[in-house]
Amino acid sequence: MSSVATFHIDHEQLLDADGRPTAALPAFAQDASELLHLYRLMTLCRLFDAKAINLQRTGRLGTYAPCTGHEATHVGVGAAMRPEDALFPVYREYGTQLWRGVTLTEILTYWNGDERGTHFAGPRQDFPWCVPIASQMPQAAGAAMAFKLRGEARCAVAYIGDGGTSQGAFYEALNMAGAHALPVVFIIVNNGWAISVPVAEQTAAQTLAQKAIAAGIPGVQVDGNDVIGVRAVVERALARARSGGGATVVEALTYRLSDHTTADDATRYRPAGELEAAWQREPLLRLRRYLQAQGQWDEAQEADLRADCSAQIEAAVVAYTSLPAPVSDDMFTHLFAHPPAELAQQQATARRYAGSGR
Amino acid sequence: MSSVATFHIDHEQLLDADGRPTAALPAFAQDASELLHLYRLMTLCRLFDAKAINLQRTGRLGTYAPCTGHEATHVGVGAAMRPEDALFPVYREYGTQLWRGVTLTEILTYWNGDERGTHFAGPRQDFPWCVPIASQMPQAAGAAMAFKLRGEARCAVAYIGDGGTSQGAFYEALNMAGAHALPVVFIIVNNGWAISVPVAEQTAAQTLAQKAIAAGIPGVQVDGNDVIGVRAVVERALARARSGGGATVVEALTYRLSDHTTADDATRYRPAGELEAAWQREPLLRLRRYLQAQGQWDEAQEADLRADCSAQIEAAVVAYTSLPAPVSDDMFTHLFAHPPAELAQQQATARRYAGSGR
Amino acid sequence: MAKLTLVEAINQALNWSLTHDPDVVLLGEDIGVNGGVFRATAGLQQRHGKLRVQDTPLAEGLIAGMSIGMAAQGLKPVAEIQFMGFIYPALDQICNHMARMRNRTRGRITLPIVMRMPHGGGIHAPEHHSESLEALLCHHAGLRVLCPSSPAQAYGLLLAAIRDPDPVMFLEPTRLYRLARQEVPDDGVALPLDQCHLLRAGDDVTVVSWGAITHEVLLAAEQLAAEQIQCEVLDLASLSPIDHNSILDSVARTGRLVIVHEAARNCGLGAEIAATVAERGLYSLHAPICRITGYDTVMPYFRLEHDYIPGVARIADGIRSTVRA
Amino acid sequence: MAKLTLVEAINQALNWSLTHDPDVVLLGEDIGVNGGVFRATAGLQQRHGKLRVQDTPLAEGLIAGMSIGMAAQGLKPVAEIQFMGFIYPALDQICNHMARMRNRTRGRITLPIVMRMPHGGGIHAPEHHSESLEALLCHHAGLRVLCPSSPAQAYGLLLAAIRDPDPVMFLEPTRLYRLARQEVPDDGVALPLDQCHLLRAGDDVTVVSWGAITHEVLLAAEQLAAEQIQCEVLDLASLSPIDHNSILDSVARTGRLVIVHEAARNCGLGAEIAATVAERGLYSLHAPICRITGYDTVMPYFRLEHDYIPGVARIADGIRSTVRA
Ligand SMILES: Cc1ncc(C[n+]2csc(CCOP(=O)(O)OP(=O)(O)O)c2C)c(N)n1
Ligand SMILES: Cc1ncc(C[n+]2csc(CCOP(=O)(O)OP(=O)(O)O)c2C)c(N)n1
Ligand SMILES: [Mg+2]
Ligand SMILES: [Mg+2]
User: Fold this and answer.
1) Which D positions 161-190 lie with beta carbon below 8 A of chain A?
2) Domain assignment of residue D173, yes or no
3) Fewest Cβ atoms closer than 10 Å to its Cβ: which of B146, C53, D193, D247?
């Protein structure tokens, strides 16, 4: 037997759990204002999450998928992208979306069962949340193909969870991106769990980044709680993609510090101690420690930031709750550019019975 | 960055294109009668293929998928399996099926559009031909799960083509087999082409064996024109699976020396010279050369074998052509164990109009 | 005897099957420790072990395909698809293989599989969690499709499904999972397949429906009774095959037919029922057939779901007009 | 002007679109150098280049999903599924996304996609190469579904499909690919969408069908004309939405309705047509509606396919009984 191919998977971490740099930091991280920008958005995500969960618990929001624990990954990816790139989210990557212009009000509107939440005023080319797991992946490859065909220096960025890596669509997209050297970066958010199924039951692969090897593209792991590492790794992958180098898979290792959604109860299935241990590695703390150590952050600033975030969130909640209720016509208006004549009758029926359903 | 995982893919070849051993041969290959057994079946496959193509060209058979060029892979896999294992073929792996007891008559019956061809008298647990590409793969994982649950020392063996490795179902099955250490061996027959699409357009992966890395299971390449190598590699993989070691992916490198099917014309898309070059590496020749060099084979034996195969084939053709025609009831009889009452009426209608369709 | 909700009745039927038939194996996403997102399999892994109640990787095509491989080797897989809106990746396995294997192999390979899945809307769930896609499955020969409307039916039909030697799609109305309780003896007695159920007798109009919306239909029938309109309410229960004879018999007496379903109208199951009556029972009809269905729109996000799902008022009006036509 | 077969007319429409609209991109399996297994795309890659006529890896879900991503960024993908029996892996993308994206995003993201696929049997092909699955697609709101029955229709409808801003499923009857030739000017003129076509006028009975089987229907109508039975033959062409008004108008005149399709009967498109007439045209009917369809069995391997597909005799008998009822 002779060896015909060799592969390895690298892991990147720039800031450890204590907020200490483990290597020379990239240029953007030399600029304190850049890091503060990241930290502010991460904090907004964290506080928004708490608010959204509270709204749900008090009957003012539908089922909600929290992002607590993922802020470094989500914000890091957002910061690495350019506005003209296209994002293919799953359902909890608010940090990236907020960076790109989606509003808190839109997020709340969506989770309250209203299509108007998916009509992003900001990043018009970004895809909406994608519930059927992994189906966004081939779509991202398609967008990348469009950019390539048109010779545009734009990239697609697609998210997927650890659970999502078990779906065929995930591999199909990676394989296509490899075969055509498409400008797309796939971000696997390995948060340890797919609802109740731990990643070790999902796959025997020791890393999820190595799934890239099947597609003949590079795969790299990054500490997903290290926003500097995430941004650096994703920036490199995007630069490579933008210059015709093709796709990359980035596995961000993080942890879902919340329930899967507000409809879930993680205490039913998570082993004792795991959650507590994960809180020690959480992303905000380490960045704050680093900023404090650099003399860039103090208690007062923290308090100001929190007050500022809370005000933003409250304003968003007000805007959200004051949206007029959707009407039955909304089911029909956007179905087709040229609606079939037959639909008019149904639309009239719907109007007649609007509000009379249980 | 630190490296967190390393992988390599091995390639096995025991007999080179000139029929010269490239390493010590395994025990079974020390026994000339074993090798002659393999050679005989490979020859039967080759001659059967010619006959089937001829039957199709002369209007006595439907579209047929030839196996010429793949005989070493197909027969090698068959020889490595045990009768109690379960086979999940695609559509052209006759060598494996014949080894296991499927008959030439059944093969012809199938390709002539008749379900009776899929009712194997021999290996009752083997799956029939599977046309929807890659869909056999999760089924094989399921069979392996059944063996595992019941504590049986049996394995599933699933075939897939190079083109089939682009389908999500392929990866889903590999991943599952890894996650549960299932007794299954996946044989990727890399014959260079998926109809008109060459493997280089199918994927950027430099080997197809490395697709196994995505699933955390071993992947190995073998010269698919070397029946000794194929049998050895698959025997090892099966022994591992049978003893609880889990799944393996075997990539057999071979070449489709024929058109995709009799409905295809490969001259439309294959580069000049490729076919001719591939004929230099074909599987029968090298085994014959080896046997001749060992003094185990001569012209007279070859002539006898060919006559014997032709007689078998002619007998099968006679049996096939003398099968009574299927009847319209055949559409209904095996649909359900307990057919819904409503179907009786349709069955009667079908009988009334049987044979009257264009 | 404790009264059970529909989801508890399902749990009881699964437990009974696991206990009495060593070939029964459960598989699906989050059905193990977590007991299923609706708790249908709660406690079963603890009781029957990790091998017989298996969490799978997140891949519906895999779940269906594995079920085929397992069933062909003699097991009786009962697979869960977490929501019916996620059935699509499994359709290749279900339609191209599960439905066909017995026929394809002339009875050599048979597939006693049950695919369970929550069906329908009305529970304020996110997008794709409220779909009614029974027509897709019913269009494929070789499958049976069931949809219970009460805890006792759920228990008896699920047992029947698990015991049937052929694949059965088992649609569980989410709106009913916890709506009402009923005594459901754990006696292992299955209900017959291929039959519809009479929920209410009446002479003025035949109303056919199934699953969750039978409850709105019964409420409408109640209302109409006060107006002297007596509805005969048939619960299909078996969506494929349809018990057409029972429907035709009823229409022969009432002369009027209303079909109510939650799924989209175009090519929904209601069309098949209407078409069959227009073929085999046309001369019984005293009025046009009436379908009251979801609209030919996408199932909306939940704020509008009760404008999509036929409500009691819409159903009552449809029946009223049919009776008065 | 050269007379074209149906598959040549499709090639011509694709070539016209590639030539006149830089946003049009073709993708699929074996559509490039090989020109498609039916030669529908023959010569197009040579003429328009590898970027605009792309061979994809072998994955239908990928093809559909990529089409969505491409369309959302402004391209007009025309994707080929090699045979309709292989549509299943693409259904998640088609039904959960393609059909819904405009609605989901309130018109922000629109998807001008055409999915082309060979439809139906009768060409002695292997298993899974002869399926008629239009009902699956028609049941989903947000999609248009077309099926031409002549070269000129194929050309005009395919151009219309490519120009429509919403996703269109384009079903190509394999039996007709090379059956007959017709003059088809390459003038870039599209046919209107959402309309059925009158193939033959008559007063005694309305016969509705689509795709390949329209030819058997016309042969039957010819035969019956000799018996003084005048059939009005409507070719649906647009399978979703259905042009119900034209059917109802015709039935209002003839009083009788026969529907002929190759797909399985249960929950087939014929049911929708019959149901609609039983609702909106019941009082016109002088006889029971009659559906002549494929059976509720698996499409058999090809030796029996002509026992499955309704033949001229079965169609003529069905029409005859309907007229005499
Ligand atoms: C096709 C499909 N199957 C099942 C589900 C139900 N479901 C929603 S989220 C989820 C787990 C996803 O886990 P992962 O991909 O790790 O993402 P995470 O929620 O951890 O971010 C499941 C099974 C779904 N949405 N889509
Ligand atoms: C799901 C599906 N899509 C498309 C096809 C049509 N088709 C039949 S064989 C084939 C190519 C298969 O290539 P490969 O997997 O390399 O196997 P080979 O024929 O070379 O043995 C295609 C596209 C199919 N059978 N199934
Ligand atoms: Mg996860
Ligand atoms: Mg191949």
Assistant:
1) 164-166
2) yes
3) D193
- Here the tokens at position A294 are 């650099």
Q: C56: Cβ below 6 Å to ligand 1?
A: no
Q: Say what the pLDDT of residue C198 is.
A: 98
Provide the shortest C-alpha distance from residue C115 to chain B (in Å).
15
Query: CA D156 → CA D84, D150, D187, D246, distances in Å?
Result: 21, 10, 10, 20
A38 and A76 Cβ atoms separated by less than 8 Å: yes
Q: Rounded CA gap, B16 and B223, in Å?
A: 9
CA quadruple D302, D304, D310, D313: dihedral sign: positive
The model's pTM: 0.99
Q: How far is B230 from chain C (nearest CA, A)?
A: 25
Q: Which two tokens stand for residue D145?
A: 């579904």
Separation between Cα atoms, residue C75 and residue C69, nearest integer Å: 9
In this structure, the number of other CB atoms found within 10 A of the CB of residue C283 comes to 10
pLDDT in tens, C119-150: 999 999 999 999 999 999 999 999 999 999 99
Residues C112, C165 within the same domain: yes
Q: Which of C150, C183, C216 is the last residue of a domain?
A: C183
Task: With cut-offs at 50, 70 and 90, classify the pLDDT of residue D1.
Answer: confident
The reply to whether C129 belongs to the active site is yes
Containing domain of residue D161, as a range?
Answer: 3-183
3-state class (DSSP) for residue D18 = helix
What type of residue is B247? Answer: A
Q: Is D55 within 8 Å of chain B by CB?
A: yes
Nearest-angstrom CA–CA distance, D216 and D310: 8
The predicted pLDDT at position C1 comes to: 73
Domain boundaries, chain A: 10-325, 327-358
Tens digits of residue pLDDT in D258-314? 999 999 999 999 999 999 999 999 999 999 999 999 999 999 999 999 999 999 999
Asked whether residue D265 falls in the same domain as residue D159, the answer is no
Among 3.40.50.970, 3.40.30.10, 3.40.50.300, 3.90.1150.10, what is the CATH number of A10-325? 3.40.50.970
